[in-house]
Design a protein that fits this description.
By secondary structure, this protein is mainly beta. It has helices at about 370-380, 405-410; strands at about 5, 15, 35-40, 55-60, 70-75, 95, 115-120, 125-135, 140-145, 150-155, 160-165, 165-170, 175-180, 185-190, 195-200, 225-230, 240-245, 250-255, 260-265, 270-275, 295-300, 305-315, 315-320, 335-345, 360, 385, 390-395, 400-405. The radius of gyration is 23 Å and the shape is globular.
Amino acid sequence: MTIDYMTGVGNNFETESLPGAWPQGRSSPQRCPFGLYAEQLSGSPFTAPRAANERTWLYRIRPSVRQVGRYKPTAYPLWRSAPEQHEAEVPFGPMRWDPVEIPADATDFLAGVRTMTTAGDVHTQVGMASHTYVANADMGDNFFINADAELILVPQQGALKIDTEMGVIEASPGEIVSIPRGLLFRVSLPDGPSRGYICENYGARFILPDRGPIGANCLANPRDFKAPVAAFEDRDEPCQITIKWCGRFYNTQIDHSPLDVVAWHGNYSPYKYDLSTFSPVGAILFDHPDPSIFTVLTSPSGEEGTANIDFVIFPERWMVAEDTFRPPWYHRNVMSEFMGLIYGQYDAKEKGFVPGGMSLHNMMLPHGPDAFGFEKASRSDLAPHKLSGTMAFMFETRFPQHITRFAADSDGLQSDYAGCWTGLKKRFNGTIEGDWD
């Protein structure tokens, strides 16, 4: 199956899977073509400023009120929502995990979500949760709506096929997908068992960061974001809808596929992005840029310059700065950093941080290269060097991230992680050269 996309992010798209299904000139005509129903999906308050107003008109076979039945509580106990403070009592400090194993039992995407950290408050719509997912089965006729948050899906192993109300998206490791708050979807696994990461964003929707003095080009360019074209199912068969609302889950049964949007137009839509199209910018003489230079997307907060969440990547790039320690330096930060590795080797942690793994460095906790990485970088030839075959990322938030009981009890939690710095010996000896023997 060939999947088509429209390019751009935040654009006002127009797409129809039947010619003439999108009403020309009037969003909500008295009679829609093909006997369809007009329905608006709003991602912002109606009175939001024009530049921030997000909405899409859907033209569907049945209005979504036909999806509303008698909801019954259901449970996904490993998917947690903030606030979950002190759910797990573990020693405070930096943490790192091995990859979560894919279950042997049949597990679809929804059942495979494992929350690692939560931050902020889902009820007041600030903060986030960091998850990993492990799945080996399709969702079939089970559909999902997250009323709490926007989702950023980051596949690490195996592709995802995501059928949304607005069309179909396929994403492989090295690509990400945004599912807006309130959009219905299901996930299938075209490559078999799959694992990856999820950022559940309770706050303002992710947007492209301002470039400032960088100017008009580089970083993530709008043309590289891809939105799906309209596609629909006209299928009268029993289906289930699960909704997440205020951290709890409910489901209901309906008698038809809810993927019945024949046409849509607007600027509130899902999209995917290929991380390899990110154009890094860095130092070309000396010193080290802040990691914020690798921000792909940002969720703004009410405080200028302080993000609710930043989605940051550490991609392939040339290292050229002279007389400069090239890996990330030792630092403490007001932001809390949850990291994952999609593929390859992370230059500051060549041992112990593996693809599918995760780490957490909360606000003001010192962190940086392990002893091996420090020694290697301190003594290496500073000729131009390309950091190849790697893609790491970071969900960074201004809120403290609290780990869940699952994360604390996980067999993959590395109890000796802090030991990676014990080999950093004292080099001060009162001379300007120091002890570098």
